[in-house]
Design a protein that fits this description.
The chain has 12 helices and 15 strands. With 401 residues, it is α+β, with helices and mostly antiparallel strands. Strands 9, 10, 11, 12, 13, 14 and 15 form a 7-stranded antiparallel β-sheet that branches. Strands 2, 3, 4, 5, 6 and 8 form a 6-stranded mixed β-sheet that branches. Strands 1-7 form a two-stranded parallel sheet. Keywords: Exonuclease, Hydrolase, Nuclease, Nucleus.
C-alpha cells in the first residue's frame, strides 16, 4: 500500500486524506489539521483543504500512519484484459455503511450486478465493532437485519473471485465503496465522472438519483426514501451502458442542488482584505443580511472569506442581482461579482461575492476579462440624437466663420 500511495496521482491522495478526515483517523502526528499545525510553520492548519496542498504534503501526512492502518486491506490483481472490452466484462457495485462507536464507517450490505442486471452478490455484513447509528433512513438496514455471520473478509474473498479475468468495476463515487471495503482495485469506471455537466461547477458531480433522472429518465428513489443497495448498483450499470450506446458527449443538465437548503440562503464573500471588519460588508447588500463571523469566516493569509445569510431565497437572489459589481467567474466556473466598496474612511476595498447554488447554466454567458465593453445600439436614443445634431450645427458655424 505504501508503494501505491507513493506512485499515486495527487487526486487520489486528496481523496485518501479526506477519508482519514471523515473517519477521524490519526497518524503518529495526529489528524490532518494537527499534522499541518505541527509541520507547516508558515500556514499551519489555516489552509486545510487537501486540494490546496501539494502532493508532497499529502504524501508526508499519509506516511505518518503505521502499517496497522493498512491492516485488512486487500489488493486485487487485474486479470488478463482483452484489447476489446465488452459490456460483458463489467460489474457494478454499491455498498451501504453504518456509523461505528469509534467514529469510523463499516459496510453492512454489498450488492454486485452484471451487465444483464443479474445479481452476482447480495450480502449483509456483520461489522466486527459496535454500531452507533444504523442510519436506517438512508441504508434501509436495521439492527434486526444484521443477525448474520458474514464478515468483511468474506466479502473481500467473494469480490476477488467475481472480479477475476479483467473485470471492470462500476459504481457511483466508487472510491467511497472501495475504502469501506478495504479493497485496492484499479480497473474502474466511476459514473460520477463520465458525464459533463452544463449547470454544475466544474469541481462538482451529480448524485446518482439526479443522473438517472437526466440520462435514463427515471428516479432511483423518491424523496425521503432510503437507499436500495441493489437498485443503486443496477442504476450505475445502466448509466454506463447508456454512455456506451449514446455517447452523451455534450454537457447534460442535472436537476440537483450542490448545497444544502441552509446554504442556499447565503452568499459567499471571499478575497476580503483582513483589515476590513466583516460586519461592514452588510452595507453593500440589500435586505436584512447577517454575518456569523465566528463560524463562517476563514483566514487565508492576507484575505478571508465569510458567508452572508438571509431569511428567504428571494432575498438572496435580489441582493446578488442588485449588488454593484462586475460579473466574472470563479475557478469552478460559478458566477460571481467583483465588488468595490468605499469605506467611511475614504479607503476603497475590493472582494468577490458569489451565490452558493445556481439553477441555471453558468457557462451560457460570456464575461470580459477586465471590464465590460460598450454595446452598440441599433438606433441612437433621442437625447443622444439631439446632442449629435447640436454638435454638427456648432461645427458648421465654425466653418462658415
Amino acid at each position: 500500500m505504501a508503494k501505491r500511495l507513493a506512485a499515486a496521482e495527487k487526486e487520489v491522495l486528496v481523496e485518501v486524506v479526506r477519508f482519514t478526515q471523515k473517519n477521524g483517523l490519526k497518524g503518529s502526528d495526529g489528524g490532518w489539521k494537527e499534522f499541518l499545525s505541527r509541520n507547516d510553520k508558515k500556514f499551519g492548519d489555516s489552509v486545510s483543504d487537501p486540494r490546496k496542498r501539494s502532493r508532497d504534503v499529502l504524501l508526508a501526512f499519509l506516511q505518518t500512519f503505521s502499517k496497522d492502518f493498512q491492516k485488512g486491506w486487500k489488493v486485487l490483481r487485474i486479470g488478463e484484459v482483452s484489447s476489446l472490452v465488452s459490456s460483458s466484462a463489467m460489474l457494478a457495485i454499491d455498498c451501504e455503511m453504518v456509523l461505528c462507536d469509534d467514529g469510523t464507517e463499516a459496510v453492512v450490505r454489498v450488492c454486485v450486478v452484471d451487465n444483464n442486471l443479474e445479481v452476482k452478490l447480495d450480502i449483509l455484513v456483520n461489522p466486527s465493532k459496535a454500531i452507533t447509528d444504523y442510519r436506517t433512513h438512508i441504508t434501509g438496514v436495521s439492527k434486526k437485519d444484521l443477525g448474520v455471520t458474514s464478515s468483511l473478509v468474506d466479502v473481500q474473498k467473494s469480490l476477488k473471485r467475481i472480479l477475476a479475468k479483467g473485470k471492470i468495476l462500476i459504481g457511483q463515487s466508487l472510491y467511497r465503496d472501495l475504502c469501506a471495503l478495504k479493497i485496492d482495485y484499479s480497473q474502474v469506471i466511476d459514473t460520477a465522472y463520465i458525464f459533463k455537466y452544463a449547470n454544475l461547477p466544474t469541481t462538482a458531480s451529480a448524485s446518482l438519483n439526479s443522473l438517472c433522472k437526466s440520462v435514463l429518465g427515471y428516479s432511483v428513489r423518491e424523496d425521503g426514501e432510503p437507499h436500495n443497495c441493489l437498485k443503486d448498483a443496477e442504476a450505475a450499470m445502466n448509466l454506463v451502458l447508456a454512455k456506451l450506446k449514446h455517447g452523451f458527449h455534450d454537457p447534460i443538465k442535472v436537476a440537483a442542488s450542490c448545497v444544502s437548503e441552509s446554504d442556499a440562503l447565503k452568499l459567499l464573500a471571499h478575497r476580503i482584505p483582513v483589515h476590513l471588519p466583516c460586519q461592514e460588508l452588510c452595507k453593500v447588500f440589500s435586505g436584512n443580511p447577517s454575518i456569523d463571523d465566528k463560524i463562517d469566516s476563514r483566514i487565508r493569509g492576507e484575505f478571508y472569506s465569510t458567508c452572508i445569510s438571509f431569511n428567504e431565497i428571494d432575498e438572496v437572489e435580489k441582493a446578488f442581482e442588485e449588488l454593484d459589481g462586475q460579473m466574472t467567474k470563479d475557478s469552478g466556473g460559478r458566477l460571481q461579482k467583483y465588488v468595490l466598496m468605499k469605506r467611511d474612511s475614504g479607503d476603497v476595498v475590493s472582494f468577490y461575492v458569489r451565490k452558493m447554488v445556481y439553477a441555471s447554466q453558468p457557462n451560457q454567458f460570456e464575461f470580459p476579462k477586465k471590464r465590460p465593453q460598450p454595446t452598440e445600439e441599433a438606433e441612437p436614443k433621442k437625447e443622444q440624437a439631439d446632442g449629435d445634431q447640436q454638435k454638427k450645427k456648432r461645427k458648421s458655424k465654425k466653418h462658415v466663420n
